[in-house]
Amino acid sequence: MNASNERLLSTFERLNGRTALVPYITAGDPSLEATPALMHALVQAGADIIELGIPFSDPMADGPVIQRAAERAIARGTGLRQVLDMVAEFRRQDQTTPVVFMGYANTIERMGQQAFVDAAVRVGLDGILVVDYPPEEVAEFAAMLAKARIDPIFLLAPTSTETRIQAVAKVARGYVYYVSLKGVTGAGHLDTEDVARKLDVIRRHVKIPVGVGFGIRDPESARKVASCADAVVIGSKIIETMEEAVKAAEAEGLSGKESDARAIQAAATWLAGIRAVLG
Questions:
Q1: What's the CATH code of the domain at 109?
Q2: DSSP character string of the chain
Q3: Is the pTM of this model over 0.70?
Q4: Which of 148, 177, 207, 219 has its CA 20 to 30 A from that of 258?
């Protein structure tokens, strides 16, 4: 087992039952140059794993906040190769924190699956969640990832049947991502009791950690989810926080780098508050 797979495994082992904190950010937002610095700041604020979104023009699982971030990133020229470069830059200083990509099949297919896996190994990627790769249809890609010791991560939802849960359990590695709400990221009201009930069903079949995301927007919802989940994944609220910081900086006439710095600081400060609640 190489360092990539070992990073995710050792992270959950090190936590020893404590809930992992997993911030999601869109690569290239607030800027390409700022993304590695943002990743480092989130780790310093208490992140255990970084989920890095690959910008895509038709993100079916993402709500308006993450869609806006993807649009901004694409407008700045952020593509898959640039995202891989961001991980390489991050790895120059951090060889410990796992980095997981979250994206869509079209992006991977355009590069080519094997070419992507080869590049991911070179930069030190640990896992990938491809939203529209169903577990029943990824045998070849999963085999490529397994050879490279990169973990394939899959989504489960409130509507997932036990048959689908079993299918995911066969191929998932690293952790499974449970979508706590019906709908897109950032939407709806989070029913943590319902989440706990569904996790009980999932754990009958899934023997790796289960993270929960979608709808976690404040310390209280994070705390409640942490009581039953192995990881808490937060995305939309972090991006909203950066959006607000950028708008305030622009209103003051600050430059792009100063605006980026404000966004990074705002995101890190907010995440540190969540870390304090989770312990």
A1: 3.20.20.70
A2: --HHHHHHHHHHHHHTTSPEEEEEEETTSS-TTHHHHHHHHHHHTT-SSEEEEPP-SS-TT--HHHHHHHHHHHHTT--HHHHHHHHHHHHTT-SSS-EEEEE-HHHHHHH-HHHHHHHHHHHT--EEEETT--GGG-HHHHHHHHHHT-EEE-EE-TT--HHHHHHHHHH--S-EEEE-SSSSTT-S---HHHHHHHHHHHTTT--S-EEEESS--SHHHHHHHHTT-SEEEE-HHHHHHHHHHHHHHHHTT--HHHHHHHHHHHHHHHHHHHHHHH-
A3: yes
A4: 219
Has residue 7 been placed in a domain? no
Q: What is the pLDDT of residues 56-109, one digit of tens each?
A: 987 676 788 999 999 999 999 999 999 999 999 999 999 999 999 999 999 999
**Is the per-residue pLDDT at 4 higher than 60?**
no
Q: Of the listed 48, 51, 151, 230, which one is catalytic?
A: 51
CB–CB of 239/271 below 8 Å?
no
**Res. 115 pLDDT band, cuts 50 70 90:** very high
Q: Per-residue pLDDT averaged across 98-122, rounded?
A: 97
pLDDT at 182: 57
Name the domain count of the chain: 1
Catalytically annotated residue among 6, 33, 58, 62 = 62
Domain assignment present for residue 1? The answer is: no
Catalytic annotation present for 62: yes
In the residue annotation, 51 being an active-site residue is answered as yes
